[in-house]
């Protein structure tokens, strides 16, 4: 059964899902292995039209380049931020890899491609599933800076699923999942 702790009661509620309030800003979705973090994020994206979630490994995209992956999501996301995509590409050191197929990239490189797509999507609710896994420290710092810049957003929400709520982030809401 989920336990919710709204840290900023003045934050607008963007959506309700399975009895949970999704607040504007950063929402931590925490729990042990098998507690349902990924399932919750994926189901939210399937049932709420303004939500995006991706498997950060991009298993169906092996033969595509980062540019092809982003072009696909650019076409599917009406509020796509091209300038942000390019800025993140540079900040996450992906520029030298733009012409490589995903099956030629490291795990961290593949995850960066997916993270850039998610962050540039412009979705009202963006779901990030263990976003720091397999990233180098510079990329983790870039991602933390981006998310903290979004912490006070009043019309968008980011749900970050992980084992714990990362202390480097400015959380609006904590959702703890417990195994049944």
Short description:
With 180 residues, the protein is α/β, with parallel strands linked by helices. 33% of the residues lie in helices and 21% in strands.
How is this fold's topology laid out?
Layout (H helix, E strand, L loop, with lengths): L2 E4 L6 E5 L2 E4 L1 E6 L6 H11 L3 E3 L12 H11 L5 H10 L15 H14 L4 E5 L7 H14 L6 E6 L10 E4 L4
Parallel strand pairs: 4-7, 4-8, 5-6, 6-7
Antiparallel strand pairs: 1-8, 2-3
Helix pairs in contact: 2-4, 3-4
CATH superfamily label: P-loop containing nucleotide triphosphate hydrolases
The oligomeric status of these chains comes to single chain
Helical fraction equals 25-40%
* Structural class by helix and strand composition: alpha/beta
What's the total count of β strands? 8
> Which CATH first-tier class would you pick?
Alpha Beta
Taken as a percent bin, the fraction of beta residues is: 15-25%
What does this structure look like?
The chain is of the alpha/beta class. The strands form two sheets. A six-stranded mixed sheet has the order 1-8-4-7-6-5, with helices on both faces. It has a two-stranded antiparallel ribbon with strand order 2-3. It has a single domain, classed as Rossmann fold, CATH 3.40.50.300. It has helices spanning 37-47, 66-76, 82-91, 107-120, 137-150, and strands spanning 3-6, 13-17, 20-23, 25-30, 51-53, 125-129, 157-162, 173-176. The chain is globular and about 45 Å long. The termini are close together.
Task: Kindly list the characteristics that best describe this protein.
180 residues; alpha/beta; Rossmann fold; six-stranded mixed sheet; two-stranded antiparallel sheet; 8 strands; 33% helix; 21% strand; globular
